[in-house]
Amino acid sequence: MDFSWGTEHRDFRTQVQSFISDNWGSNPDNHEERDDRALAYTKALAEHGWLTMAWPKEYGGRAATHWEQMIFAEESARNGAPTGGQGADRVGPTLMIHGTEEQKREHLPKIANAEVFWCQGYSEPGSGSDLASLQTRAIRDGDEFVINGQKIWTSGAQHADWIHILTRTDPEAPKHRGVSYFMLKMDTPGISIRPITQIHDATGFNETFFEDVRVPAANMIGDENRGWYVAATALDFERSGINRMAGVLGPYARMMEHAPKADSAAKGRRIVDTEPHRLALADTTIEIEVARYLGYRVTWMQSKGLVPNQESSMSKMFGSELQQRMARRGINMLGLFGGLRPESKHAPLGGEFCRYYMSSVSLTIAAGTSEIQRNIIATRGLGLPRG
Q: Does the reported pTM lie above 0.70?
């Protein structure tokens, strides 16, 4: 097996790196309060043709290869740069598979041109890992459905134009079968949003409430009561990216640069002078390569027309747990000073690892918990029985 890159891929990676450097720069502070800047950058991606580069040309894409899309995602995650959000990586691809021609004509060009931004209404206060137990109801009323319920952890809801949402349309059916998938405008009467301040002071998550919200039946993606299977498609797209591994690369590189230096906060000692810290850095180096090739495997499957399932779960689980290990190792290497927030002048590395450590808590929950990923790997990958 050839693990080297061809000239065209190396050249493309250089182009991506230059674009990010010119338009975004390096952003080690992964704080979510950067919306105006992210919006401008996303529009620049659209103008450059990179927002939906892997989409077919008839939908506003460039028909780029899966490898080019992966290189773009890897370099973006390395620098904390936006990649276009849920419209580009989830809603659009899902509509291409399950949407009607009218839905594709209405939504895909707007996503490709960065005219609209999307959020996701999946999790509920009582339905997180067991997502199929969701209780938000949608009741048909003529050519409309009336939605009542609550969603939580709705990332970016306060800035989104549209939401794609799972609802229960048949409460008598088995829980995976009575679910329908809708698209709603966020300014629809009856939708209210309450931001959730997280432990690292960001407000990326939200609670979203629906009170007698009317949505046209034409906004349903897929068939009524078959929305769970549409959602499974969207989840596979969400879990299949290289971004979780690549998100480690920036903090790891900055720690490797910092480790040989004498740290005044540690009374002149260097991180590399402590054997457990040297071993932790070595372990991280190895784990990054493992995560990288798990992600590359997913891309290879996609490039061959295969649909990764348990392979996506393997990449997602290992990558998100690697980020948590890197955050934990980093803050331990920096000692007590590592717990200082970025606002402190005494915080080493600008307080990056303090925020990284706190924000990493949610990584093994978002997009499906590690427990769910292990279940998928066990049942669909290894053929083990349920229960």
A: yes
